[in-house]
Amino acid sequence: MTMTEPLAQPLDVKLMNLTASVLYLGCALCVLAALLWWLLRYPGFAIARIVVQGELVHNDAVTLRANVAPHLAGNFFTVDLRAARAAFEQAPWVRLAQVRRWYPGRLLVQLQEHDALAYWGPESGSALVNRQGEVFEANVGDVEPEGLPRLQGPSGSSAQVLQMHGLLQPVFESLGLRLQGLELTGRGGWRATLDNEAVVELGGGSAPQVLQRTQRFTRTLAQVAAQYGRRVSALESADLRHVGGYALRLRGVSTVGPEAGTPGQVLAGTPSQALAGTPRQTTAAHDTTDKGRN
């Protein structure tokens, strides 16, 4: 062994040095934890203000803050923004919420409310349909009871029914009638209810097919009603599921079929198609095709 080689440390010295290092590290971690604990609970880091922005019609910013604030755990640095967003979106009429930190000590909340375009489901329910075709629950007393149509259909069909309502509404408006209700049945057929309480069976098929069938009906309805001394508003019901024509009932018109004394419907269509009605129906021939009108 040369004089320049360091002496090996005894085992007990190594253990003491290791123990001291562990103690120093533990103390440092404890100090950091205590500092972090103090910082997290320092009043200066508390959420001092919640700023709510957005076009609010059915909500009040003050009420929203008061209702949501108790559900916000932590301070400015530790608050869970996802949980805060979910808390705001649980509020009635709120469709979307965006929450972000706004230094110092503030939360900035951007809200988008549902824009209700129709009721959804039976009259006993509280569901509405927004502009995006989404169904949501809200206090239906917050909307005008006569201002919205009622839509119905299978689960998940709200957007489809809303779109069809948008296509058909102008068609009925051309007659001075309002499409008060629209239902997509379980078999894929469409049933319309007008503001004069008339029910119109529109049949099934694609949206263009249903639209074309309805347009043919509205173009000829006034002429058919006039044959019986009635206006369009006298419409009680109609069935457009007949090939090339339709059957309808007019208020105040009592038709009698070939079998004496048997009430029936007015059938409008091509002569051959109209005569193909049931024996209990009085037939009124009217061509609904483009060829018949020219």
UniProtKB/TrEMBL annotation:
Supply the Pfam families for this chain.
Answer: FtsQ_DivIB_C, POTRA_1
POTRA domain: which residues? Answer: 45-114
Q: Which residues cross the membrane?
A: 20-40
Highest classification ranks of the organism: Bacteria, Pseudomonadati, Pseudomonadota, Betaproteobacteria, Burkholderiales
Q: Function, please?
A: Essential cell division protein. May link together the upstream cell division proteins, which are predominantly cytoplasmic, with the downstream cell division proteins, which are predominantly periplasmic. May control correct divisome assembly.
**Could you tell me the gene encoding this protein?**
ftsQ
**Protein name in the entry:** Cell division protein FtsQ
| Biased segments, Polar residues type | 270-286
The UniProt entry lists membrane topology as:
Single-pass type II membrane protein
Task: Provide the protein's localization.
Answer: Cell inner membrane; Membrane
The entry sums up its family as follows: Belongs to the FtsQ/DivIB family. FtsQ subfamily.
A single GO cellular-component term from the record reads: cell division site
Q: Which UniProt keywords apply?
A: Cell cycle, Cell division, Cell inner membrane, Cell membrane, Membrane, Transmembrane, Transmembrane helix
Gene Ontology BP annotations: cell septum assembly; FtsZ-dependent cytokinesis
The record's annotation in InterPro entries points to: Cell_div_FtsQ/DivIB_C (IPR005548), FtsQ (IPR026579), FtsQ_C_sf (IPR045335), POTRA (IPR034746), POTRA_FtsQ_type (IPR013685)
Main location class: membrane
Region (Disordered), start-end ranges? 257-294
Which Gene3D superfamilies is this protein grouped with? Cell division protein FtsQ/DivIB, membrane protein fhac
Q: How does it assemble?
A: Part of a complex composed of FtsB, FtsL and FtsQ.
